[in-house]
Structure formats: C-alpha cells, structure tokens
Specification:
By secondary structure, the chain is an all-beta fold. It has 1 helix and 10 strands, in the order E-E-E-E-E-E-E-E-E-E-H. About 5% of the residues lie in helices and about 70% in strands. A 10-stranded antiparallel β-barrel has the order 1-2-3-4-5-6-7-8-9-10. Strand 2 and strand 3 form a beta hairpin. It starts with 5 loop residues before the first strand and ends with a helix.
Length: about 140
C-alpha cells in the first residue's frame, strides 16, 4: 500500500475445541477520521492465506465493521456489543456463512492513533470459537515525536 501514514499492530487469539491459536501481525496502514468514524486500511501480504487482500476497519461509536476484499475473498464482519451479526465469507471455493457475537467492543482513538479491542464468539457452520482481537495504530507523525 503506497503513501501510508501510520503503523498497525494486531494481536489475535482464537480458542476452539480446547486449543488456542495466537497470531501477531504488523505493518503500514492508512489511518484517518471521516464523519466521526475512524478508518484503518492495510494490505495483507501473507502468501499462504491472504496475499493481495485489502482490509478496511471502520470504527464507529457503537459498530465496528471489518471488510476484507481480494482476489480470492470478499466479506464484511460486523461487531456490536451484545449483538449477533451474520455474514457471507466469499472464498474462491465457495461461500461460508458465519455469525459473530460481540461480547465486548472497546475503542479509544484520537487523530494520532489508538486501540481497538474485540472479544467475540464466532460460529462457522456450527463450529464455535472464542476470539480476542486487539489492534493498535499510531500515525508515523506521532511515532516521531
């Protein structure tokens, strides 16, 4: 992604069937505020899973949307505390229907960055997992202060 103005760091933990998987990812992103909503946009470069995928995270007052588009996938997940949202996760081999139930959504952002923490249940065709996701973002200008 060209002309990025910020850096992101993602921490993710998923527990299903008694097993926990952890992941960390960091990179450059675009971060901005428009009409009261904060946006984080970045390009994923994982050749095994999501190479060429663009992720856009919209952080509103009560709703967080995570959109992912790319050559082999297209989806938008929604997180709202205490609510269940369904989505279609379109992949090259077909569509998967998922439900996410956010247990907590905590966001604190300013013009120079911030932090988003999500705790949610994910149900993919009856297979359920407990998930924790934290995204930290900081503008490059703020990093140099």
């Amino acid at each position: 992604m060209k002309n990025t103005n910020a850096r992101y760091h993602i921490y993710s933990e998923q527990t299903a069937d008694g097993e926990t998987m952890r992941m960390e990812m960091a990179g450059d992103c675009n971060f901005y505020r428009q009409d009261g909503t904060y946006y984080i946009e970045y390009q994923e470069d994982d050749p095994e899973h999501s190479s060429g995928c663009t992720t856009q995270i919209e952080v509103g007052e009560e709703l967080v949307k995570v959109g992912r588009t790319g050559p082999t996938l297209n989806t938008e997940l929604r997180y709202q505390a205490g609510r269940t949202h369904s989505c279609a996760y379109e992949l090259e081999f077909g569509t998967i229907v998922m439900e996410s139930t956010a247990q907590s959504v905590d966001a604190a952002f300013t013009e120079t960055g911030g932090r988003l923490s999500l705790c949610y249940l994910l149900d993919i065709g009856g297979t359920k997992s407990q998930n924790h996701l934290t995204i930290e973002v900081k503008t490059k200008e703020a990093e140099n202060v």
